[in-house]
Design a protein that fits this description.
The protein is an all-alpha fold. It is built from 13 helices and no strands. It has 2 domains: about 190 residues, no CATH class; about 55 residues, no CATH class.
Length: about 260
Amino acid sequence: MHLFFVHLLVGYGISLATVLGLALALTLWGRHIGRGVTHAPGLDGVVSLLTWVPWVIGGVWGGWPGWLGVLIGQVTALVVWCRVHETMHPQAMKGPRIVSFLNRTVGRWQNHLALWFTVIALPVFLLIRALQLGVYWVLPLLLGFPRYSQSEWVNVSRQKFEGLVGHDLIWCLYCDWMTGVYSLGAEMLRNVESFWCPIRFYDGKKCENCRIDFPDIENGWVKETGNMSDVVKLMEEKYTHGQRSWFGHPVRLTIKGKPIE
């Protein structure tokens, strides 16, 4: 039991000091570093140091008590950073704030509990990001799928918004990062789905729901009442000439200002 608390407390202390120190350093000098920390791949390194790297170190060193201590330390660091940042911006604290409005609208504890509940999604988005970096590159190499400048998707910029401080800022940056990761993943999946399975779903409601993220459902996929000859004909039309992107991809629309299809 004694060793349990040693691992817990050491993991907590080291995590609190390192995560809070990095967060404060980024707060004070981040603007001078610029794109190096706000856009991938530099942003991937920053997110890793603030999230999963401490988990791994704590778990390897101290088992699950060390991991738990690291996790509690990260949460404490986040709360402390919010308070420090809010203290640094007293004028913004006197003005309108997202958290104040939502606390009034849905209740303080409901808003904060729901917000922390969304942190459960963090490991999922970290995994998606790992797949984007570690798996997708194979598809352009083997199949000619389009390559992407991932920094155009995975970046953060809401720290530039006037009056967004402390609690509001950190959660908006969380959403900022997640939105980019999600959008890049959806873009990659559009290529995958239209390349291998360009067939509409029999479930009309599913087609209606999914067409937002997969526009090719309404932009060329074979009707569910069609046949395999229709599928192969469509694939010959769309992929014979070397374009391996989803059908509505910008590269298909123009090349040097002229239509290519």
